[in-house]
Amino acid sequence: MPSLWSACCALLLSLGLCRARPRSALLILADDGGFEIGAYNNSAIVTPHLDALARRSLVFRNAFTSVSSCSPSRASLLTGLPQHQNGMYGLHQDLHHFSSFDKVRSLPLLLRQAGVRTGIIGKKHVGPEAVFPFDFAYTEENGSVLQVGRNITRMKLLVRKFLQTQDEGRPFFLYVAFHDPHRCGHSQPQYGAFCEKFGNGESGMGRIPDWTPQTYDPQDVLVPYFVPDTPAARADLAAQYTTIGRMDQGGRVLGAQQPLPRGWRRDLGLGLCRDPAAPGLGPLCAPEAGCRLGTCSQPQELAWGSPGEAYAELGGGGGQFPLWP
Ligand SMILES: *[C@@H]1O[C@H](CO)[C@@H](O)[C@H](O)[C@H]1NC(C)=O
Ligand SMILES: *[C@@H]1O[C@H](CO)[C@@H](O)[C@H](O)[C@H]1NC(C)=O
Ligand SMILES: *[C@@H]1O[C@H](CO)[C@@H](O)[C@H](O)[C@H]1NC(C)=O
């Protein structure tokens, strides 16, 4: 299938499989992230580590997915196909019950067939297993999503475990999917609307050793034009900013604090993508809200710091995913 191939080829190129020396890739995903990042010109939030990543990246301003919701956007990212081709029209599991078609060949499947070791840490929420297999997996399917997706110390240790069990010279693809800044008031209300209190060291909240919580005054947040400017919305955004800060600090500990195995160089192809459902809005495709993915990625210094004007519709428009301008 040409569309799948063109999407995957860009990623394979970023893994360097088409070059003599194989390179590895780390893909970081945010769950329900919006544009609340310094790199996207939000001046109220403090995200120094994501901003530093963006400075050595190509920042896409026009990357879209055709369904701006959890499992469908993840499935597009991992297959290079739009929902009507990969079958993941809605949420996986529970009563929603959506899955990709059995014949779909996903990125982890193709990479595994090419001899690349694959790993996932954090939220998976796509299926079936045969379509999205990973050699190393710590996800909500066999553990607590709070631990594997929000506890940045636990996530750091899992990344370390993955790297320490990696054969020298064999390329890897590691997909780290944060559960931050997804809402959590419906499932764990004791931790706050966005689980912003989980691990903050207060009584009953536990502690995440690598996290220094940042709190925001609701008066200071930037309320997007499509959200009513009410005290409730501002309180929500302030809590959301705190969880984005946890993910930002996670970005630091996942990378800088990893002792790499002998023979490894820290020249990974890096990607940050956002599962693009703005909080509380559901699948709304307003340009500033739902459907933009805002992908940053670029192993070559060539394009660092330059904005990507390319129209990158993951899985749509013939599966184009032009990482290189
Ligand atoms: C942020 O604003 C600057 C100045 O207006 C602009 O050059 C840049 O492209 C903006 N970044 C994004 C990601 O929109
Ligand atoms: C989750 O699965 C992995 C195998 O992919 C296994 O090594 C790990 O121990 C499992 N974790 C739990 C909590 O069962
Ligand atoms: C986070 O993970 C670390 C390492 O496993 C653990 O010591 C700590 O208690 C965890 N924090 C919470 C809030 O669960």
CATH architecture: 3-Layer(aba) Sandwich
As a percent range, the share of strand residues is: 5-15%
Mean pLDDT: 77
Provide the CATH topology.
Answer: Alkaline Phosphatase, subunit A
Number of strands: 10
Shape: globular
Structural class: alpha/beta
Share of helix, binned: 25-40%
- Give every kind of bound small molecule, once each: 2-acetamido-2-deoxy-beta-D-glucopyranose
**CATH domain class name:** Alpha Beta
| CATH homologous superfamily descriptor | Alkaline Phosphatase, subunit A
Terminal-residue CA separation? 23 Å
Q: Sheet with the most strands?
A: 6 strands, mixed
Overall domain count: 1
Strand order of the largest sheet: 5-4-6-1-7-8
Order of helix and strand elements from N to C terminus: HEHEEHHHEEHHEHEEEE
As a whole number of angstroms, the C-alpha radius of gyration is 18 Å
